Automatic annotation (TrEMBL):
Protein name, as recorded: NADH dehydrogenase FAD-containing subunit
Cofactor(s) of this protein: FAD
Keywords on record: FAD, Flavoprotein, Membrane, Oxidoreductase, Transmembrane, Transmembrane helix
Gene Ontology process terms (BP): aerobic electron transport chain
SUPFAM superfamilies from the UniProt entry: FAD/NAD(P)-binding domain
Family membership: Belongs to the NADH dehydrogenase family.
Membrane spanning stretches: 12-33
Chain ranges of the FAD/NAD(P)-binding domain: 14-289
GO molecular function annotation: NAD(P)H dehydrogenase (quinone) activity
ATP-binding recorded as keyword: no
Keyword Cytoplasm: no
């Protein structure tokens, strides 16, 4: 008996979208706009909170900056999509149901999994107990509270990737009374051209961020961190940005996942083990000609739109098309007054061209502010969301 028959209440095809992040919202708006006039399709979006989390601005939240109140249910108004507020605790891929807050069960015919990722605090002992993260708006607010209560002291940002760089710069700019130390295996901006990297390093130096590259944090302590080799660095606050991990829900449901817990998809973004499940955004392991995509908003939104287009095609009895995406930039904020934007080839390798200073600040802000108005446009003109770089020869061979 199918999940649809079991409920006995509806004959509509139920599409349940998990996660109203950048990717999940793109999927929900795109699909709802396309099936608006169909009574035989029901779109439901599930998310932990009603307020949209602008993840790309969480380092601003972590330094006490107030962000716009963006309401997901308000955005969905007029689309026909339902919003369910709740915490997804389990997916039963055989029964085709989703459990919410442990006591509600939502059946689906098609599932779109877009629950994103969180900071990987399981990477080293002590990180889970002693480190702050930017995993959610609540986590960022906890960090903001802690920083606001310090008159002096040291903040260690452990992890020199883009989140670590943006956090360290923002904290140093907003809290000049604190010493900010950025630690990581790689030098910050390692994937950039020498020019962009030199600019980034000069900006961090100007902001007073002490950078220690080539070090490995092996433990987070209540009052600092321990490095490989035994050295300890005392800190009043440790922020952990050493990689991301994906919710164990997908693996627990029996969906095929990769070593990081991401759902492995086929070229159409369907789970290779459960084709009625589409995976999008940071939670998906999507292979392109250049390799498996890494989590970004620039790639995440297109995955949501593409999943919606594919579901719409299947509902109309047509074949879904393969997904293709090529990167085009790496924008990095360096506090509110500075930034660097590295333009990239579709495989994410750096092009020669970069923006710095005020131009880069404007570019980064435009990029960061663009998703919400994009969703608004998509409600009225779904096709307006379907443009992104397909990656040319870099993705043509994708399997
Ligand atoms: C500080 C920072 C700066 C960044 N800057 C950039 C940038 O400049 N450009 C760029 O392209 N990318 C950037 N990123 C990366 C980008 O934010 C992510 O790749 C993007 O958010 C992924 O989108 P998503 O929809 O997959 O997941 P998310 O945006 O994380 O959304 C997941 C949603 O699912 C919800 N959720 C999770 N688990 C559950 C559950 N069990 N039950 C119910 N709801 C749940 C969450 O609350 C959230 O609303 C940045 C990230 C950070 C942290």
């Amino acid at each position: 008996m199918s999940a649809r028959q079991e409920t006995g209440t509806t004959t509509a095809h139920r599409v349940v979208i998990l996660g109203a992040g950048y990717a999940g919202l793109a999927a929900a708006i795109q699909l709802a706009a396309r099936v608006k006039r169909r009574e035989d399709v029901q779109v439901t979006l599930v998310n932990a909170q009603e307020r949209f989390t602008e993840r790309m601005r969480l380092h601003m939240t972590a330094t006490g900056q107030r962000l716009a109140e963006l309401s997901v249910p308000e955005l969905l108004e007029g689309t026909g999509a339902q919003f369910v507020r709740g915490w997804v605790t389990a997916v039963d891929a055989d029964a085709k149901t989703v459990r919410i807050d442990d006591d509600r069960v939502l059946p689906y015919d098609t599932l779109v999994y877009g629950l994103g990722g969180v900071a990987d605090t399981s990477a080293v002992p002590g990180a889970e107990d002693h480190a702050y993260t930017l995993s959610s708006a609540q986590d960022a607010e906890l960090l903001a509270d802690r920083l606001a209560r310090l008159d002096s002291g040291t903040v260690v940002v452990a992890g020199s990737g883009l989140t670590g760089i943006e956090s360290a710069a923002e904290i140093a700019e907003r809290h000049p009374e604190l010493n900010v130390v950025l630690l990581g295996r790689q030098e910050p901006g390692a994937a950039m051209t020498p020019k962009a990297k030199a600019y980034l390093h000069a900006a961090l130096h100007r902001l007073g961020v002490q950078v220690r590259a080539g070090v490995e944090v092996v433990k987070v302590l209540p009052d600092g961190v321990e490095l490989a080799g035994g050295e300890s660095i005392a800190a009043d606050v440790v922020q952990w940005t050493g990689g991301t991990r994906i919710s164990p829900l997908a693996a627990a449901a029996g969906l095929a996942v990769d070593e990081r817990g991401r759902i492995v998809t086929d070229a159409m973004l369907r789970s290779v083990s459960h084709p009625e499940v589409y995976a999008i955004g940071d939670a998906a392991a999507i292979r392109q000609g250049y390799g498996v995509m890494h989590g970004t908003c620039q790639g995440g939104m297109p995955t949501g739109v593409h999943a919606a287009l594919s579901i719409d095609r299947v509902l109309e009895g047509r074949q879904p098309k393969p997904f293709r995406f090529g990167y085009y930039h790496t924008p990095v904020s360096l506090g509110r007054g500075d930034a660097v934007v590295q333009f990239t080839r579709p495989d994410d390798s750096p092009r020669r061209f970069c923006l710095t200073g005020r131009m880069a600040v404007r570019y980064k802000e435009t990029v960061t502010a663009s998703p919400w108005p994009t969703y608004g446009r998509m409600k009225k003109m779904p096709a307006s969301g379907a443009f992104w770089p397909r990656g040319g020869r870099f993705t043509r061979e994708a399997k």
